[in-house]
Design brief:
Elements lengths: L6 H5 L12 H4 L2 H4 L8 E7 L4 E6 L17 E5 L3 E3 L4 E2 L7 H4 L6 H18 L6 H7 L1 E5 L3 H21 L8 E6 L9 H13 L2 E5 L2 E4 L3 E4 L4 E3 L2 E4 L3 E2 L2 H5 L10 E3 L11 E3 L4 E3 L12 H20 L24 E6 L2 E5 L10 E4 H5 L1
Parallel strand pairs: 4-15, 6-7, 6-12, 7-8, 14-16
Antiparallel strand pairs: 1-2, 2-3, 5-13, 9-10, 10-11, 17-18, 18-19
Helix pairs in contact: 5-6
């Protein structure tokens, strides 16, 4: 399991990769110790809600380094269920822009951060080679970040700190050529308080990050083309413009909410399918529930998970734990979400803390070194 907010720090060596990942069996020890509790490293292919079975395929070891002998081919199996919770997460949005998947790095998993770190260090060493044309050196050392959310802002801040503290000391020959550019179609950190957005903008500029307003039209191997025809050469491109439904979620024949998420009611149930629930980034309240689709945040799914635990306990006490046995069960109060606030680091030991319950509410907001300590 990956603690995503700290991934940006691993890209530049502030944290090691092992510091942001933890085995799922250590987080939930029952998976490795309790009878009839299991963790399967596999992909879900489809769900048969009539027979209450999940069809899966194991993960292949093909492509893993230092593997001895022939690769282990995946095989398929099925798991029966009484109650099923879908928490399949989401995938990075590319808006079907040509070249993004082929040339850009995403920042969702540890292997993404490892590849970014590898490319960054490789470009620094390449740029130090003698005889390299000036324009090619500048391209190699141009780090472009597309997107203006917390992930992109934090990554840009980490990169600027890396340049100021490490590159200037260890790569002094190229220190004047390395730059970070953040491209966003609108304002950065649009969900934060206006004052915090202004503070973040000023802090990033102060740290040397170039902010550019623009929409990416297409991505090539060595440059980005914007809608206005501007070419932006790059050596490293990190793409993070939000998340959307995965191919698995798209394949499910259920009602969908805004953004293509699995449609759920106020008790996390999928109305059209008995005994199946959905939480997290892959799920969203249906319009008829009267609730807004919640943001793709860890605090949302944490609260939803705890709600489901209590709900399943209530169902079990009323003898509704078995398949097809919970139709007339009293589920109690529906789920209510209260936002606890948002935080983002902007580099140089500075951060933002926005404690408002919603984008339009008024509450305490902090920015600066004290916020970074929080």
């Amino acid at each position: 399991m990956v603690f995503t907010p700290l991934l940006a720090s691993t890209c530049v060596g502030t944290l090691e990769f092992r510091s942001v990942a933890e085995p799922i069996s250590r987080i939930q020890s029952a998976l490795s110790t309790a009878p009839n509790s299991h963790f399967y490293l596999a992909n879900c292919l489809r769900i048969d809600s009539d027979s209450h079975e999940v069809y899966c395929e194991t993960v292949s070891n093909r492509g893993l380094p230092n593997e001895q002998g022939p690769p282990m081919e995946p095989y398929r199996f099925k798991v029966a269920y009484d109650k099923l919770v879908i928490a399949a997460g989401a995938e990075p949005l590319t808006f079907n822009i040509k070249g993004v998947k082929e040339h850009a790095f995403f920042l969702r998993e540890v292997n993404n951060a490892q590849e970014i770190r590898k490319r960054l260090l490789l470009n620094l060493m390449k740029a130090d080679n003698t005889g390299l044309p000036v324009e090619e050196r500048k391209r190699l050392l141009h780090c472009v970040v597309v997107g203006g959310g917390p992930t992109e802002v934090e990554f840009s801040g980490e990169l600027s700190d890396f340049i100021i503290k490490d590159v200037h000391e260890q790569y002094s020959h190229v220190k004047d050529d390395i730059h970070v550019t953040l491209i966003e179609a609108n304002d950065i950190l649009s969900s934060f308080d206006v004052g915090l957005r202004e503070y973040a903008t000023n802090q990033l500029i102060k740290c040397g990050v170039r902010l550019m307003i623009g929409i990416v039209k297409e991505v090539h191997e060595k440059k980005i083309v914007l809608n206005d025809g501007t070419d932006v050469p790059y050596g490293l491109l990190v793409w993070s413009t939000g998340v959307g439904p995965s191919d698995f979620v798209k394949s499910l024949n259920v009602l969908k909410s805004l953004g293509g998420r699995i449609g759920i009611d106020q008790w996390m149930r999928i109305p059209s399918v008995e005994d199946v629930f959905a939480i997290g980034d892959c799920a969203g309240f249906l319009e008829e529930s009267g609730k807004q689709v919640l943001p793709a945040l860890a605090q949302v799914v944490e609260r939803e998970g705890k709600f489901l635990v209590n709900l399943f306990n209530k169902i079990g006490k009323q003898n509704g734990g078995k398949a097809f046995s919970a139709k007339n069960i009293n589920l109690g109060e529906p789920f209510v979400y209260k936002h606890l606030g948002s935080m983002a680091s902007v580099g140089s030991y500075k951060a933002l803390v926005d404690l408002r319950e919603s984008k339009f509410a008024k509450d305490i907001s902090h920015a600066g070194f004290v916020s970074w300590l929080i």
